[in-house]
Design brief:
The chain is mostly helical. The chain has helices at residues 2-17, 25-31, 35-43, 47-54, 58-64, 67-82, 84-94, 96-115, 123-141, 151-166, 172-178, 182-191, 194-221, 223-241, 276-304, and strands at 245-254, 257-268. The protein is globular and about 70 Å long. The chain starts with a helix and ends with a helix.
């Protein structure tokens, strides 16, 4: 029972995290120690699961895909998107710096917990950590590409977006912005443009299954190096979560709807130590760090139950 509650709470946290730029559901899954189980469950949504369903072996299919775990987790994600995520959207709009400060403290301390899962810090692990950090920072600094509606490119965008959503520290929406097709996808969703949505959906489906298989394989054969790369992704995401920055945006035109502001980059600033707001932000960083300690202990108790 405690394990079920912990899984549902992890889902709530994952759903809320997707609202925060630089934080992904994958980050929360990695922090709470369910990441590998999640990847393996997604990987098992394959032809074998379909065959079991079609032959009437529903219970076996449910157990095969770790259905109880996926149901509780995705229920938490769905409820969070409807409730908690709306709260964080409001906080980001009206109190962005303070919200970012809280998540900066949360993510900063989570790096320690994730790194603790690495059993041996060999040279290859250190190199993997540097590569992960460099990739995450590099993505944050990239200038957006130009829009490209070609079928193959939109398919690749779908693969990249869904893969980045699975990975800790990377945002699928931000990857679409970098690839130049965020406004194209947004417009296609609003107008039900199948010439864009079809290759995007195919790319997302292919990317989800293929990437989950790849991640499962590398976890099995190179666990320490994989954890190091993902720790690097989380470290790199701190660049985006840094509270003292100016966000660079541009307007995206949407058919039949008002223009939408999207993030295209950042200008980083140093905190003003003489400001009371700065110290309030520091206090929220500490609160974020404390919350990750509570989350980690809750997850540990749940796994031991």
């Amino acid at each position: 029972m405690k394990t079920d509650v912990a899984t549902f709470l992890n889902g709530l946290a994952m759903g809320a995290a997707n609202v925060i730029p630089g934080v992904s559901g994958g980050t929360i899954a990695l922090i709470t120690g369910i990441y590998e189980r999640l990847i393996n469950a997604i990987k098992r949504c394959d032809h074998n699961a379909i065959k079991l369903v079609l032959t009437g072996k529903i219970k076996q299919a449910w157990e095969y895909v770790d259905g109880r775990f996926l149901f509780l987790l995705l229920s938490g994600v769905a409820i969070s998107i409807v409730t908690l995520a709306r709260l964080f959207e409001y906080l980001l709009e009206h109190h962005e710096r303070m919200t970012m400060a809280f998540f900066f403290g949360l993510i900063l301390l989570s790096i320690v917990y994730v790194a603790q899962r690495i059993s041996a810090w060999t040279p290859s692990v250190w190199i993997s950590l540097l590569i992960g950090s460099g990739v995450a920072v590099g993505i944050a600094l990239l200038a957006p590409a130009s829009e490209n509606p070609a079928f193959v490119y939109v398919f690749i965008c779908g693969v990249a977006a869904i893969s980045s959503m699975i990975l800790p520290g990377l945002s699928g929406s931000f990857v679409l912005i970098i690839m130049g097709n965020y406004s194209l996808v947004l417009s296609a969703i609003n107008t039900a443009n199948l010439s864009i949505l079809l290759p995007l959906a195919l790319g997302c489906g292919f990317g989800l299954i293929a990437f989950s298989h790849l991640l499962s394989w590398v976890f099995k054969h190179y666990e320490n190096q994989t954890l190091a790369v993902m720790t690097g992704f989380v470290i790199g995401s701190l660049v985006v979560i840094w509270p003292w920055k100016e966000t660079l945006t541009e307007q995206v035109i949407r058919e039949g709807k008002p223009p939408k502001e999207v993030v295209t980059g950042y200008e980083w600033l140093a905190p003003n130590l003489s400001s009371a707001d700065t110290w309030l932000a520091v206090g929220l960083m500490v609160l974020g760090a404390v919350s990750i300690v509570v989350m980690e202990r809750t997850a540990s108790r749940g796994s031991q139950a």
